[in-house]
Amino acid sequence: MKKRTNMKKSFCNVFFLVAFCFILSHARKIKPEKPCKHLTVFYHDIIFNGTNTANATSAATANPTQLGNTNFGMLVVFDDPITKDRLLLSPPIARAQGFYFYDMKDTYNAWFAYTLIFNSTEHKGTINIMGADMMMEETRDLSVVGGTGDFFMARGVATFRTDTQQGTAYFRLQMDIKLYECY
């Protein structure tokens, strides 16, 4: 009886070792030093101030609370143009549609969730981005969590850098998007 139990254990160990080796050999190798796609684009946000209806690309849908002076609790919904260069009036290559909200009481910080929607001759599809934007940092990394079309099931990092800011009325971000999983 003891011999049979040992044979079962040995068989199970060999089975799991073979299964583990099979899974490892078929796992997709991700090389963080070399992205499979790389885009640098510019995100333009013009917040609605009550009088700029024709130009605004975003609007606060929930006002900030009285907890601190960092817009804590303010929710902003946006449909912002994405361009290849820094110029707001350049033809957009995509739209950024989603929201961000200010989520820290003692410093400026926002949490973003949005989709880049590409519909140009160069790219078709979407890239989904989400994460914390620590605005006081020079560069901030947000997660690329999926996509469609040319960016089907994309995974990677979108690095934000504030390119310019004009008070609370307008800001432009440089987005350096590196995709490490491309299908």
From TrEMBL:
A GO biological-process term: phenylpropanoid biosynthetic process
Coiled-coil region: none
One GO cellular component term: apoplast
Subcellular location: Secreted, Extracellular space, Apoplast
Stored InterPro entries: Allene_oxi_cyc_Dirigent, Dirigent
N-terminal signal peptide: 1-27
Domain of life: Eukaryota
Keyword line: Apoplast, Secreted, Signal
Pfam families: Dirigent (PF03018)
Family note: Belongs to the plant dirigent protein family.
SUBUNIT field: Homodimer.
Function: Dirigent proteins impart stereoselectivity on the phenoxy radical-coupling reaction, yielding optically active lignans from two molecules of coniferyl alcohol in the biosynthesis of lignans, flavonolignans, and alkaloids and thus plays a central role in plant secondary metabolism.
Entry protein name: Dirigent protein
Provenance organism: Coffea arabica
Organism ancestry: Eukaryota, Viridiplantae, Streptophyta, Embryophyta, Tracheophyta
Gene: LOC113705021
